[in-house]
Structure formats: C-alpha cells, structure tokens
Amino acid sequence: MEDARVVAWDELVLATGSTSFVPPIEGLDADHLLAGTVPGVVAFRTVDDCRRIVETATSAAHAVVLGGGLLGLEAARGLLARGVHVTVVHPQGHPMDRQLDADGGAVLTRVVRGLGARLVLGRFAVAHRPATPETSAEVVLDDGSTLAADLVVVAAGVRPRTDLAAHLGLEVNRAVVVDDQLRTSLPHIHAIGECAEHRGEVPGLVQPGWDQARVLADVLSGADPHATYAGTSVLTRLKAHDIDLASMGCVDIDVHDPDHEVLAFTDPSRGRYAKLVLRADRLVGAILLGVGDAAGALTQLYDTGAPAPRDRLVLMLGRAVTRAAAPESVSLAEMPGSAVICRCNTVTKSAIVAAHRDGADTVPDVAEATRATTGCGGCTSAVEGLCSWLRSTDPSPDPAQPSRRTTPETPAQTPVPALNAALNAALNEGAA
Ligand SMILES: Cc1cc2nc3c(=O)[nH]c(=O)nc-3n(C[C@H](O)[C@H](O)[C@H](O)COP(=O)(O)OP(=O)(O)OC[C@H]3O[C@@H](n4cnc5c(N)ncnc54)[C@H](O)[C@@H]3O)c2cc1C
C-alpha cells in the first residue's frame, strides 16, 4: 500500500502471484523492463504490456519473441496476424516443451512455421542492442547470430512473488510452501495461487488458484473447517488463432511403459497429432493437436474419469463420449451432466442446465449465475452453444423465477474477464 497504512488481521492470505522472469541479457535491465520503460522491449504479463506490444507492432517490421511456451506462441500468432515478421527463440528442442512430448512438439513446430513464424530452437538470447540513428535494434543469440528486433517480447516464464513471505520468515521453496489446508509454515498465514507451492506444484493457470481459494474460504469461514485441497488436474489450451491444441494430465510416458497404455496418431503434413495415455482403462493424459471434434469428447473422458471404450480406434477418433459426426445439438445432449464446461471455475453442464432452468438463458446470465466464462474466456462458445441448445430443447426457464435477462437499460454486470481474454482480444484483433 502506498500510504503505509497498518491493517490488523486475524488470518492473512498471501495471493501475490508472480512476475515475469527476465533472463540475463546484456543490455536489458530487468527492473526497467518490468517497469515498462525499455523502448521496443515488453515483458508479456499485464493488459498494459499487451497494449504496448500492439502499439509497438504498428511500426515494427521485425519482432523477436523470447520463449516458445504458451504465452510466447500466443503473442507470436497475434503479431503475425498484424503483418509483422516474427521470430520465436526457444532454448529447448521444441516449443511448449512443458506440455508436449518430442513428437507432438515436432508437429507443433511445423504448424507454427507453416503459419509464417520463424522458430529458432535450442538457442537463447544473450544481448539486446537498441536502435541507434544508424542501426536497427537487434537481439544477439548465444551462437553469435543476430536477429532484427524492432520489437522484443519477453515470454520466458514467471517467478512466484515471495519476497513478502520470505520477509515474514515463511518456508519458501520454489514458492511459499503450503499444506492441504493452504497453511504456510507459520500459524494463521495462508497462501494460494501462483505464489503457493502445494505438494511440489506451483500453478501457472487460474483453475488451481480458484480451487484453492474455494477450499480456503470454506476453512476460514467455518463453512467446512476440515476442507482440504488435493490438487487440480489442469488442462492447458493454446489460445492462438489457427492452432487447436490442448494438453492434459501426464503425457511424457513412453509408448512401452509397462504401467500405461499409450496410443499415438501422427499426421505432420496436416498438422495433426494425438497422444492418449491410459492407466487401468482410464484416460490419464492426452495431447490433442489439430484433431477438431475428437478433442472435446476426449477432454470429457479425461474430466469424468469414465472407462474408455474397449475399441481403441473408436477412442482415438473421439467417439468415446459423442458421435464425432453428430450435429452439435446431439453432442450437447449426449454430453454427461458431469462434463466440465468452464474449467477455470469448474462449472459443469448440469450447473449450466440448472442455471438455465432458473432463468439464465444468455451467456452473461449464465456467467452471473455460475461464473462460467469469467476466467480465461475459452469456454464462451461452448456456453453459447449450450444456451442455444437449451433454448431449443428446454425452452422455458422457470417462469416463477424472476428473469435474469437484462435489458439495454440495465446491462448485465460484466463478468470480470481474466487477463487472457483481454490480451487475446487485443492481440488477435485483425487475425484472419
Ligand atoms: C498473458 C497471460 C495469459 C494467461 N492466460 C491464461 C489462460 O488462458 N488460462 C489460465 O488459466 N491462466 C492464464 N494465465 C495465468 C493466470 O493469469 C495466472 O495463473 C493467475 O492470474 C494467477 O493468479 P494469482 O491470483 O495467483 O496471481 P495474479 O493474478 O498475478 O495476482 C496477484 C496480485 O497480487 C498483487 N500483489 C503482489 N504483491 C502484493 C503485495 N505485497 N500486497 C498486495 N498485493 C500484492 C499483484 O499486484 C497482483 O495484482 C495467463 C497469464 C498471462 C500473463
């Protein structure tokens, strides 16, 4: 707090998140970069950063994105759509190496290159030379090569913000260490979200943080003093125009692993790759790149933990839960009530159907009633689809309930969009 007020507390919850990691690069001062004061270089973290990327891109011919993870690729795709020549520099052998195995990474590499980006793998930036009246700005790589860089986007990962926790004397490993009730090493101090390390995991997505927040609220309010958090099975989805990629669960399992069954489909020339990992007939991990309809069905199978069909070819085609060729209305009807539609807020199809019966029949109504769509926004089209399917099959939200429908005079409370929705909207604006 800027005014140095002292606030008394009985229970303290740390949710200080993370900051962008700025790798050591000669000529780049991390503090200045994070303060947003280095011309032509942006650490990709906030909506303001996104605005600066978009502004700089209007006069940039060449952009270099440092980091080929989720955020780096999303930024690269947005810049390509704005007509900028983009080079992504990634130190590992394939992009998104935390979510993909080598084969999936090789197919993604091809897809990204096919969209027009240059991908420099196995290299990292060692220096940044700003523009002078005589020369353009450039990035120097570890092999001495240089890249023209009117704009540099730093997307090299994040570091949990733990300085306050360390100052308080809490146990800090990669982040603030917490137990299953989100308690830190000192009484009455808790930590959740990206600053917290639970069972060795530090979340990088909103869903685990919000699951933790729910458990902690139950514990602290006394609603359920014994509530515990056992972890979140996260699904990572790349939100980049023309790249349909989801990765979930354990994927780095060898095809001959005796404890798992591994199925793979590789179609590099069409940018398609699917890897399914099963244990005891349940889908416990998957990489789904460019497989369209199958992705939705397989994600549901992963979410619900239902047994996989015995015919593995049927499974590969995503016909485990829905008929792939069925029209959307049939798919929605066949989807089990337990299918998670909004992963950020863990909102199931049943919860949306219940909200609809309660009077919520538009996306903003459903958002208000269930919080679906208010996280990363990736489920908005699924919720839209469900709403229109419900309108056609279950046309009468309970007439006894006051309608949640909003009029132009009384607009719905805008669901708070998470960072990503704003960033993608801005970056992908203009995408073909
Ligand atoms: C560009 C981008 C796109 C993303 N896209 C997705 C996505 O599609 N899906 C997804 O699930 N996740 C996405 N994420 C990740 C997601 O944003 C984070 O996982 C989530 O925001 C973490 O929440 P948090 O509350 O732990 O931390 P934060 O959201 O970082 O919030 C921490 C807050 O604490 C404040 N703070 C820090 N120190 C103090 C202090 N001492 N006192 C008071 N306040 C303090 C900070 O200013 C900040 O406002 C994205 C992240 C980025 C950067």
UniProtKB/TrEMBL annotation:
Entry keyword set: FAD, Flavoprotein, Heme, Iron, Iron-sulfur, Metal-binding, Oxidoreductase
Domain BFD-like [2Fe-2S]-binding: start-end pairs: 340-385
Alphabetical list of Gene3D superfamilies matching this protein: 3.30.390.30, BFD-like [2Fe-2S]-binding domain, FAD/NAD(P)-binding domain
Record field: compositional bias (Polar residues): 403-413
Coiled coil region boundaries: none
Pathway: Nitrogen metabolism; nitrate reduction (assimilation)
Pfam families linked: Fer2_BFD (PF04324), Pyr_redox_2 (PF07992), Rubredoxin_C (PF18267)
Transmembrane segments: none
Chain intervals for the UniProt region annotation (Disordered): 392-416
Single GO MF descriptor: metal ion binding
Flavoprotein keyword on record: yes
Record-annotated NADH-rubredoxin oxidoreductase C-terminal domain positions: 236-290
Domain FAD/NAD(P)-binding: 4-212
Cofactor(s) of this protein: FAD; [4Fe-4S] cluster; siroheme
Taxonomic superkingdom: Bacteria
Family (UniProt): Belongs to the nitrite and sulfite reductase 4Fe-4S domain family.
Protein name: Electron transfer flavoprotein
Source organism phylogeny: Bacteria, Bacillati, Actinomycetota, Actinomycetes, Micrococcales
